Amino acid sequence: MARPNRRRNTRRNSRSGESSRWPYILGAVAAVGLLGAAIFYRNQTEHETAVNPDTLCPLDSGPVEMAAILFDLTDPLTPAQSKQLLARVEKEIADAPIGTQFTMGVVSEAPETWGATAPLCKPRSGQDVSTLTQNVRLVETRYEQRFMAPLHDNIESMISANGANKSPIMEALQTLIADTSGFLTFGGPRKVIIVSDLLQNSDAMSFYAGDDWQSFAASPQFGRLNRTLDGVDVVIFEVPRVVSKIKDPRVIEDFWLHYFDVQGARKPTVTMIGDL
User: Which of 267, 188, 178, 274 has the alpha carbon at shortest distance from 228?
Assistant: First the structure.
């Protein structure tokens, strides 16, 4: 009787065992690869979305756009106008790209109140990130508490400003621009948003004194124009006022069209903030 070939059977069993382990080995290699790719992607995403802790601006690029908002509320708003204005300014913020830097300033009689608020860049909200790469809850908390809350507080305080005897719009605008870090030299898109009745009233130029563009251009004050708005988009939310001292309201529009043209800005878009 022939003896079984134990050596041959052993080799066969060995090969069979090795074959059965290959799927597990390949699966482990694939899992390690996927884990490594996930870690790399997460680290890459964290690097690309990292922000300055003070300004919330992207660390790798800085601001992608700049927007300076000037509130000329030397005359009070009605409740309807306040709500409209708040909604429109918040929409400007919501429509802005992630990484847009915002500053705000106010027109008042007192020059010491002119200037810009601390710059804040619009960060990613919870809707802009993936649960696979970031903590959505922390991102949303940062967006609401570090970005929207301070901006909202600034807007609320500025739209509740009291009346004043003078309205130096040109002067406050230039101070806001000069005080906004990087605005003058920034190479990307820039925008100025102005909330105003546009009734310039200062020693340099006053509609109440009968001045218009022609008289201003012929005056010594014209040389003070600081041409800092080259290529800037201008958005105006105009608050209408009933002013009996100004005989022809068209001189107001004519003045500001010339003003922004000389400054090098694009033609303004104007939206009325009425209450009737």
Answer: 178
